[in-house]
Amino acid sequence: MSQVLVIESSARQQGSISRQLTAQFIARWQASHPADRVSVRDLAVEPVPHLDGNLLGGWMTPAEQQSEAEQAALALSNRLTDELLAADVLVLAAPMYNFAIPSTLKAWLDHVLRAGVTFQYTENGPQGLLSGKRAFVLTARGGIYAGGSLDHQEPYLRQALGFIGIHDVSFIHAEGLNMGGEFSEKGLAEAQAKLAQVA
């Protein structure tokens, strides 16, 4: 039995293509892996605070010297990191906002990319500690960006996940969604077909 962690980041609850893809992924995954456990963290419903002085203090200040705010920030970061550590499969649902990922997803990453926990510094440079995990990234994009210079989603997420040792990453892009007609239909259909293959 595997643990699947799904991270939703679309600001929209209704009409969200990334949420639609997530629902389809979960349904197909559970049909193929009925014993697996799936948990969902919705960053729109429960936003994660952006990196601030309290979180930095919680990481760097000895426990007996931490303020209440630092303790609370550290407790949340620990909870988010524990969820990731427990997962065998990570699913990130990421609509493209201004050529990149939602700031809520960036905030989540800032909580879980932690020295000594999900990666470590060695004589040979940083080393990820989460090897053996798989990740799927479901994106929704108004235009067509895959492989182009304006795609700051896939390169960044590959770098961030690889940094903590997650190198088995599959991207499913639903593109051209705001271009109308055959572009949006084709983009969604291609994403759904690829999703059916990988899930």
UniProtKB/TrEMBL annotation:
The protein's job, in short, is: Quinone reductase that provides resistance to thiol-specific stress caused by electrophilic quinones.
* Sequence ranges assigned to domain Flavodoxin-like fold in this UniProt record: 3-197
User: What InterPro entries is this protein classified in?
Assistant: Flavodoxin_fold, Flavoprotein-like_sf, FMN-dep_NADH:Q_OxRdtase_AzoR1, NADH:quinone_OxRdtase_FMN_depd
Q: Which UniProt keywords apply?
A: Flavoprotein, FMN, NAD, Oxidoreductase
- In which residues is FMN bound? 10, 16-18, 96-99
> What family does this chain come from, according to its entry?
Belongs to the azoreductase type 1 family.
What cofactor does this protein call for? FMN
What is catalysed by this protein? 2 a quinone + NADH + H(+) = 2 a 1,4-benzosemiquinone + NAD(+); N,N-dimethyl-1,4-phenylenediamine + anthranilate + 2 NAD(+) = 2-(4-dimethylaminophenyl)diazenylbenzoate + 2 NADH + 2 H(+)
Keyword NAD in the entry? The reply is yes
Q: How is the cofactor bound?
A: Binds 1 FMN per subunit.
HAMAP family xrefs: Azoreductase_type1
This protein is called FMN dependent NADH:quinone oxidoreductase
Q: Does the keyword Kinase apply?
A: no
